[in-house]
Amino acid sequence: MFVYEKKLQYPVRIKNPNPALAKFIVSQYGGADGELGASMRYLSQRFSMPYPELKGLLTDIGTEELGHLEMVGSILHQLTREMSDNEIKKSGFDTYFVDHTAGVYPTAASGFPWSAAAIGVKGDVIADLNEDMAAEQKARVTYDNILRLSDDPDVNDVIKYLREREIVHYQRFGEGLRLALDKLDEKNVYAMNPSFP
Amino acid sequence: MDNSPNNDFLFGALPAIAPLASAYVPMQPGVEPRYEPQSAIGRGTLFPGLDLPFRGMVNKPLPQTPLGELMAIDFVADELSLYLDTHKDDREAFELYQNVLALSKEAHEKYAEQCGPICKKDMLGMKAYRWLNDPWPWEVKERGED
User: Fold this and answer.
1) Model's pTM, two decimal places?
2) Is the ipTM reported for this complex over the cut 0.90?
């Protein structure tokens, strides 16, 4: 069960609308390594996790990712407010605008709509935690790339925060994998893996 | 990154011997050192050892508004909870978590009373259904502002 808190995890206050930035930041909403995929990946993987530490970790990080999805959606909403027809055309936001107006839609910047094909749920503790660590690094790189492309201090403030969260999550997933390996037979973690009975 | 000799907090222990074909990340050794709440949320982590910014770009501490204070303390609670998920027997961290939960409760109640409900349960005892009041979190304007 989920309960909504009517606040963001970190403030999003974008002073200047800028649809040109929204055009690529949308990838962290609905792209392959975005926050929607992150939350769906972790909140789905947790059902087959064998240990309480991992059930807890995937639940908690998956929930935090939903909060990040809300933050990225807030950035997109604020960047695309009060756009003039001319700004829409000039910024290159026109291809998104024609389909979604200023609505927030989960898609990659390259135009591919959000797909579960970009996430993995293997039902195996080792495979899933390795996927999660890779996913955090991929999201971190996407945020690095956004920081290279964006010169808006209000946007970059939030992006820096979200990027750092990926690093913390990477550490926690690594520790989770470590706990899992310690509980498996050290001589043969694959043969003793409780994920395949 | 701090490259001085006193940067032990950037490191953690690995097993002396480990099975082949397994990925290992060092365990974070403890909750020291750590940032103050307003700085922690600005940096995106409570722990200097995990604070690895892109091209050295870092944020300032959050402003001391009622919402800023609530976000900062709730952030520390979330961050500690993730740490405890993988360090459940760390007594120092759990005691810290207790203190942070108490501060979070206090900040939550204060904010809800001043600016309106954060959760539906905050409306117990309120005189009207304030859940719908603008602004919502994704809007530029912050609650409690004119």
Assistant:
1) 0.95
2) yes
